[in-house]
Design a protein that fits this description.
Elements: H1 2-10, H2 25-44, H3 54-72
Helix pairs in contact: 2-3
Length: about 70
């Protein structure tokens, strides 16, 4: 409580603070698709014999393409 009170009393808004325009929906979607596909691939990979399974390969490709596009976009 004391730290919150002192922070609010001593820290003021910056004069140079810029307002953010909006949400980067493309980036958010690419990140969600990439991490989601990676998570599902890692969960199902051992059960489906990793890259011998077509669905695991598709999830890996989806994850790689989504995350690389996220970084470059």
């Amino acid at each position: 409580m004391l730290a919150l009170a002192l922070t609010l009393s001593f820290i003021t808004d910056s004069e140079h603070q810029q307002k953010v325009g909006g949400v980067d929906w493309l980036g958010l979607g690419l990140l969600a698709a990439g991490v989601g596909a990676l998570q599902i691939m890692l969960e199902r990979g051992e059960r489906l014999d990793w890259f011998a399974s077509g669905s695991v390969r598709l999830l890996a490709i989806t994850s790689v393409v989504s995350l690389i596009t996220f970084i470059l976009a």
